[in-house]
Amino acid sequence: MTASVTTPEAVSHLRRWFMRSAVWWRWPVTRTTVVQTPQGPLKEISTYRRGLRGELIKHGLHSKHLGDEVIVEEHYYEGVLHGPYRQRELTGAYSMGKKHGTWECALPSETPPEGRVEYRMVEHWDRGLQDGLFQWWDREGKLCFSHAFQRGILVTPVDNPSGSLLLARISEGKLSDSKLQDKLLQPVNLEYRQTPLNVVWPDCVLRHRLLIAFRSRTSANGWLKFQERGRTVNVNAIGIPLYAGLEAILRPQSLLLDYRYGVLCVVDADDASTWRDRTGVMDLHPPLGTELEKRLDAPAKVTWREPLPVAIRNIGADQQISVDLRIQPRILAPEKRDSLFDDPTTGWPALPREVWRSRVGNDTVPLEPLPLTLRQVLGLLLDQAKLHCHEENGVLIIEPLADDAADRAGNSVKK
Description:
The chain is an alpha+beta fold. It contains 11 helices and 24 strands.
């Protein structure tokens, strides 16, 4: 048996091979693609490095060019955004995939068309968390919106120019959905010039993927009244916070955005600030192991599109829980006086379209699973019907509000 001998030439060859492999592995790879668009050629330049298995990982500069204009310029580190970022008027920086430092959206250089409002925005971030002032100015330099954050928590300044009820709810800690908060504060472009309201609102809700309950008491068919012809919207704003744009659409209709039971709601402006929850839904804590405890904070079952009193009467069967309706039968009976049908605020359940279904036709298709919990659906329904609830041994007890019950008792004595 002969031993193998490694010659100096073989060692030198191996050394050169390893050096060339290391250079090949770490040497940046640049790829350029060009796509023809109606606006001209769109060129994309990406820089990569190779991974252990030879796969390409974004590392370095990535940019997009439309003709001679740089529309996006960003930097990657090991496949993650890291470093300066620029997208047309927007500039900022990332730290390991998270927004960091000062971000600014400058005003477009072109003179805006007549009637359009444009905003300059400055934000402050700390590794993915809003931290500091978020402010918007118009072209005249007027401060239009100002929000202060502390480590991702909104703190509405006393002199906040917007005076938004929704912002006040968020700063009080009543909006627990951080993704929704970010969406409501992001800058958007809303361009509706003398556009019918019944076109604008569905377009806005669908485009921004919002879940909204219509809570106006204008009539038993408040949503239909809101959608009636003849109402127009004239909002033409670039870079406006989404919540402010929505309120600019609603305010001329004497409506506002509010946040109730974890759901965005369109409400009447005149008494929105004095509203308080009297349903008792948020205080429900059923015993462990009961069906109510299992279902309460789980996705709700589909609610059928039917008159509110019928929906209340069928809530146990529809939601598969034990319910004791301690309500006088005439309150839920359409043919009797003193029923919920007599109240113009209670026509149809004011729930987001994504959670109910019509028994006739297929005009809505609820999301699966439903985006609202049983607790949220109960809150919206009972608040609309002016009812209260509590729990006894795993059974949901639904009853009139204390003051309403006293009023009805007094009326029956007078009769």
